[in-house]
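During data preparation, we tokenized the protein backbone, and the record follows.
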Amino acid sequence: MQNSNIRKWLIIFLFVSPCFIKAQSTYLEVVDTRSQPTLPSEYNRAAKFSFKENAAIGFPEPRYSTIMGVRGWWNDDSGGPAHEIAFTLSKGLYYRAGTMAGGWNKWCKVLIENVNGNVGIGVDAPPEKLCVDGKILAKEIKIKTDVTVPDYVFDPSYKLPTLSSIEEYVKKHRHLPEIPSASDIQKDGVNLTEMNFALLKKVEELTLHLIAKDKKIESQEDRLAKLEEQIKKLMDTK
């Protein structure tokens, strides 16, 4: 009878334990080792989760992060570095890699969209599609826009502002018409598309003024040449 009960419980254990183990294995434990730094050698052929104080992992924020670490190789660096991703409380995702020989590299922010579909570099809450707090270096930047290109300046019906009206405006406002003032630029920045087209419009208007001035000068030179010829004829008749 006793052996029968043992066999019964053994059968139940063998049947239930795989299900229990399988159910448990669907969850990875996050170990609270908050004050302990991590080493690349900790992740030898393993993936681990841990809860850390940022000061312990060299992260520049005085709070906490959940760390996911993984490494595919084990006893040396020949199989590649270890990797860590930091899920921070308010600064987004950060990544770093490290080797057993050299230790961890610097934390780098992972660029992902926020809830509004915006991306920030050096900006925690980007208000636009791409916000960069710093300098940008690029070989080429192409802007597509629906802003009207000011070629209408060359239309015969366009009313070209006179130079005297521009002079009066500049004396009063200390900047060109349709160009933002220095204080406005300092306050709101510069919309490159609008500024480029505004400057193009001023160049086109200036070109028309130069053409008109050139024609006027040519006309005056012709008149002067005719007057000089008439004066010469008068002098020759004396």
Residues 65 and 89 are 6 Å apart (CA to CA). The chain has two domains: 2-109, 150-237. Strands lie at 30-32, 46-53, 64-71, 82-88, 93-99, 103-104, 108-109, 119-121, 130-132.
